[in-house]
Records
---
Amino acid sequence: GAVVSQHPSRVICKSGTSVKIECRSLDFQATTMFWYRQFPKQSLMLMATSNEGSKATYEQGVEKDKFLINHASLTLSTLTVTSAHPEDSSFYICSATKGTEAFFGQGTRLTVV
Amino acid sequence: QKEVEQNSGPLSVPEGAIASLNCTYSDRGSQSFFWYRQYSGKSPELIMFIYSNGDKEDGRFTAQLNKASQYVSLLIRDSQPSDSATYLCAVSGNTGGFKTIFGAGTRLFVKA
């Protein structure tokens, strides 16, 4: 299967700071990537669709000014959590679609203290 | 109505038994159906995918799809304790760049 690499796997930051998470498709080009958030014992909730060369599409209830998405190339999408607060602490996962199959990054455990 | 619905469980089965996981979806235009396994604190990993009505078998796993009933299931034969995890049903269609929508997941416990 295809490989999607997500970095960092774990980050702890202070409240009010910003955190950037990278998602890379290593062996294929992905014009579209997806960002999910997962709270403990809950399923993956789609936050936004990242489109290469254009603006991301955000799901209802997700603040686009807080969760900045940049898809600058066919292999890289970044999610920046701006002015992070403790309630943003969660497991963030990216995925890229090859054909109709979604391949996931390893996930990023964000803890805001 | 949720787009993809699953019983949250937990579903508890003894080792060696068959575990049956069920999922329904609301979008009739859905084309691709997936089962992912997720261990606590880890990303999901793909177990099975199915595109056509009927059964698809891969080792101990069998996926079943019924598009008329908007129903997809996963059977795990000879369940092992290592199968204990949360199983996510996922559905994608032909819009939104094959956006994949996940169910809430079913927690499975296989008792040794």
Note: The two ends of chain B are 37 Å apart (CA to CA).
---
Amino acid sequence: NAGVTQTPKFQVLKTGQSMTLQCAQDMNHNSMYWYRQDPGMGLRLIYYSASEGTTDKGEVPNGYNVSRLNKREFSLRLESAAPSQTSVYFCASSEQGGIYEQYFGPGTRLTVT
Amino acid sequence: AQTVTQSQPEMSVQEAETVTLSCTYDTSENNYYLFWYKQPPSRQMILVIRQEAYKQQNATENRFSVNFQKAAKSFSLKISDSQLGDTAMYFCAFSTQGGSEKLVFGKGTKLTVNP
């Protein structure tokens, strides 16, 4: 039982490049989330998927897209990376919605130069 | 909009002592849930404690307990018998029941436990 896994763990991009962050959970959870963590800002929600087949914007969605590929997988795509997207990205999942415990992946440290 | 405020960016405590981390929140909802998450230097976020707003009894988990004051919209975390492994960032978070499924986080308190 791996919980929530994320790939890659580290990534360096040049401005304008694109990439996809992958996330998978093996707990049969319905809800999945993408957050970014910046110093002094806490965690901010980028996008979430309340259940398979649905996605919704969070607090900071600009510059990102997501795909809920199936119940297990939820990917985050940066189409044209910008230095402002330098951050640590966390994927999380929960049984159903924000009132339940969220289980987090180990994070991806992304640097955009 | 719901907001969560942690007024102490950093705190320190001696090993074996007790420390309290503050959290206040703002909401017009009546049914909601409050959480404390811990993020050690390894970066792995884990749940410390969860409180349901309709329950008057304060939640406890071993050395961790909360002081939940609904009228004051306050949700502080008390760590008793602090251990070196408690050194971490602590985030207070809030979610409404039947709402938009979003968990709103505070900006965190960095706690250092000194030997």
Note: Chain B is about 0% helix and 50% strand.
